[in-house]
Write a structure and sequence with these properties.
By secondary structure, this protein is α/β, with parallel strands linked by helices. It has nine helices and twelve strands. It has one domain (4-223): 3-Layer(aba) Sandwich (Rossmann fold). It starts with a strand and ends in an 11-residue tail after the last strand. This is ABC transporter.
């Protein structure tokens, strides 16, 4: 059985159709990158998978169950979601932020148990944030804060972790650190979906890539299968050359010398 299966998914904001006939299924615990030009529907697809948005046609199944039939507690136990640019208006400590991930397992007014504390500690150890547990969340750098919010999602003990541009505003070190950490989480039986802007990072870290253009998946597969000159031209309207990275043995993309002035830069 597929962990995630999406069938004929259509979604609109008012009269503007954003997703048009999305179909795919993912089996096994992998890192899946969702890429494409701005406005192609990447974040909207992620929100439909999470159940935060409801399609007007089509279905999303998690472990064989339709997301639309799940209540919020069920979804929170299966799906961890980390949106873009998370901030807190309150001075919560990092351990309090991560403890919020245990809410789906607590009854109203129930106090956290020793087991909850153990899971929070493990989640923070996995994300290298245990040393930040007593710091206030708004004191942290962008990369540190991002890891804390990933720890909160992990404390939900999800089968699926959804991340919307987790490294977009970070420097190179934090980009590599966070994507390496996410890749390692697949060994903990977690399926990762991540919206990414950097094609070369998606090539290096993702097992599967979904390439979107105008609300449709135009290619799905391994980086070698998806990141071709033709696909990049179609999705991003640029001429690119594709080489093999000698270290990672994955496709490496650079702009072609024949690039025109009207092309968009990746």
């Amino acid at each position: 059985m597929s962990i995630v299966k999406v069938e004929d998914l259509h979604f609109s904001y008012g009269k503007i159709e954003v997703l048009r006939g999305i179909n795919f299924d993912i089996d096994g615990f992998k890192m899946v990158g969702i890429i494409g030009a701005n406005g192609c529907g990447k974040t909207t697809l992620l929100k439909n998978i999470s159940g935060y948005l409801k399609p007007y046609r089509g279905n999303v199944y998690i472990a064989g169950k339709n997301v639309s039939s799940m209540n919020s507690r069920e979804k929170a136990r299966l799906i961890g979601y980390v949106p873009q640019d998370m901030y807190s208006d309150f001075e919560f400590s990092c351990i309090d932020i991560v403890m919020m991930g245990r809410i789906p397992y607590l009854r109203r007014f129930q106090k956290e148990t020793e087991n909850d504390l153990r899971i929070v500690r493990e989640s923070m150890m996995l994300t290298d944030t245990w040393n930040l547990r007593d710091r206030y969340i708004n004191e942290l750098s962008g990369g540190q804060r991002q890891r804390v919010y990933i720890a909160r999602a992990l404390a939900q003990q999800p089968k699926i972790l959804l991340l919307d541009e987790p490294v977009s505003h970070l420097d190179v070190k934090y980009q590599i650190d966070i994507l390496s950490m996410l890749k390692q989480l697949t060994a903990k039986n977690i399926l990762i979906f991540s919206v990414l802007h950097d094609i070369n990072l998606s090539s290096q870290f993702c097992d599967v890539i979904l390439l979107l253009d105008s609300g449709k998946i135009i290619s799905k597969g391994t980086p070698d299968e998806v990141l071709t000159v033709e696909n990049i031209k179609r999705a991003f309207s640029i001429d690119a050359d594709v080489f093999k990275n000698p270290v990672s043995d994955t496709p490496y993309i650079i702009l072609s010398k024949k690039r025109g002035e009207d092309q968009r830069v990746v």
